[in-house]
Amino acid sequence: IPRSLAENSFILYAQLIKPLNPEYCSQSHYEILIRLQNDKSEIIPPGAFIPAAERYGLMNSVDLWVIKNSFKLLGKHNKKFPQSPIHIAINLSGQSFANTHLVQYIPTLFKKYRIKPEHITFEITETAAITNLTNAIKFIKKLKGLGCKFALDDFGSGLSSFAYLKSLPVDYLKIDGAFVKDILDDPIDEAMVQSINQIGHVMKIKTIAEFVESEAIEQRLIEMKVDFAQGYGIQKPRPFLDILQQAQSDN
Predict the structure, then answer these.
(1) What is the rounded CA–CA span in Å between residue 38 and residue 35?
(2) ∠ CA 204-205-206 to the nearest 5 degrees?
(3) Could you tell me the CA-to-CA distances from 89 to 14, 112, 185, 207 in Å, in that order?
(4) N or C: which end of the chain has fewer CB atoms below 10 A?
(5) What is the pLDDT of residue 50?
(6) Contact present, 148 and 112 (Cβ < 8 Å)
């Protein structure tokens, strides 16, 4: 992993976050994902290296690499097409919350790559946020003050989801895909998705359903008034550079 960081062997992928509410259709919104290319030019998924990076305390470096390289690509695109900017969501690990250097450094990257903070959403998992609650709140408030948005990922997977939600000033709830993928067949999962969506809206938080794998699931989510959908039924992850090039050709 350190060698891959030094040699830029990581590759940025992205997956569309599709608006289900017509009010948000004007935005192109993608979640940034990371892959590793080995010596044989094979693409290695994050599940094969992220656990090792977490175990050996390397996630701060991985997160920073993703932020810098995402900003670099996005800054060039949005400068060229300011009338149709792309918004991106970047995952942050729990280790990054404890890194006071990172929260101070991110504003300098906005200036360097001419990124508007309002075009950036940072995603944090519910488990990581609860484990590092004090640091997470400080981190969120600092960057929200600049204009960034925050999403709470995998919401519903923890035991105290709703109790902690009031403490976290987030803009989006990403409904855990474990509930979403079976909403057509399991009334309990459907009720969970409905509950999370309703609570989010009461708190003025937009909702994103993960693991949307079919048009039928997407249609049910529209009926439930979920705001956004993400999953293989919407779009499979693609290299971020390809997405930007496609957007440029469309413009």
Answers:
(1) 10
(2) 120
(3) 9, 19, 30, 14
(4) C
(5) 93
(6) no
Q: At residue 38, what is the residue type?
A: N
- Rounded to 10 deg, the angle between the 59-80 and 100-113 helix axes is 20
Dist CA 227 CA 196 (whole Å)? 12
Q: Which amino acid is at 200?
A: G
What tens digit of pLDDT does each residue of 62-99 get? Answer: 999 999 999 999 999 988 888 888 999 999 998 888 78
DSSP state of 237: -
Residues 6+ apart with CB under 8 A from 19: 25, 27, 29, 227, 228
Residue-wise pLDDT for 118-141, tens only, equals: 999 999 987 788 788 888 889 999
User: Rounded to 5 degrees, what are φ and ψ at 80?
Assistant: -75, -35
Rounded Cα gap, residues 210 and 29, in angstroms: 14
Task: Indicate the residue type of 5.
Answer: L
Question: Which among 37, 31, 5 has a CA at the least distance from the CA of 16?
Answer: 31
